[in-house]
Amino acid sequence: MKALLICEYREGKLLDSSYELTAFADKLGADKAMVLIGKESEAPRVNAKVYLADAVKYGEYNPDLHKRIILEAVKRENPDAIVFLHSSYGWDLAPRVAAALKVGQVSEITGIKEGKFEVSLCNAKLRRIVTPQTEKVVLTIQAGAFNAAGEPQGKAQLETIDLADAASPLEFIGYEPAQKKEVDLARAEVVVSAGRGIGKKENVAIIAALAKALGGELGASRPVVDAGWVEHGRQVGTTGQIVAPKLYVACGISGAIQHLAGMKKSEFVVAINKDKDAPIGEVADVLVVADVMQFVPALTAKLQK
User: Fold this and answer.
1) 155 and 211 in a common domain
2) pTM for this predicted structure
3) Number of domains in the chain
4) 154-188 in b/e burial notation, b at 16+ Cβ within 10 A?
5) Residue 53's pLDDT band (cuts 50, 70, 90)
6) Residue 78 belongs to what domain range?
7) Fewer CB under 10 Å: which end of the chain, C or N?
């Protein structure tokens, strides 16, 4: 299988999320090539062919020109899959490419099972296994679902794409930044989340202290956010942020399915809960059956020493 991966580039920089595409291709067992509409100095550090088009000439985003550049790369590479991140860039561009190629599209893939694609449904309460019905397929992958391991290394083999006709009625003007998040939990290597089991708002500081001692970020379950104990920007789950850190610590979180869907890709999960039968225990590598407000301060004190 061969995958053509569409990099994301913004304000002169390759986005690190582009490497999630390579992690996806590796898990799929696919040979990979990439497309970058950016600048040569920002080429991804991969041992693969990278089709390069100049963002100064074609705009950092122009759906008309970018679609044509990708279609040219498809013509040269003849991939089985064209893969985007499920981002504002991917949302807009992937269906345009799928329509132009007259092929199927599978959106917001969260996993791979026996070579087929796993997609969440009904606010992550259900999972659907999808088999594409066309020879080629356009895919988008959920952010954080396929995190790359280690620092990217390699040297791209660059091949230039230069359209004979770069005329377009559209013009890239610039970006209007979204409201800034308190923290990007999707990029954190350690996340320590507070659940309703911590008891009251004042106890959030105790969980935050553990997060700091571990060099991580504070997260929260939806009930804690709904109660106003923690700001929404730190909510983990399908209605918050999807995370996949190296270490996830769940403090007083029972494990509603929406929360589990938001953190189940974590490499190592520690759950602290008084209930040994709490659903969070099903995904935890270590389940500590204890009173959160007794165990966490003791653990923090040990770490601080």
Assistant:
1) no
2) 0.69
3) 2
4) eebeeeebeeeebebeeeeeeeeeeeeeebebbeb
5) very high
6) 2-160
7) C
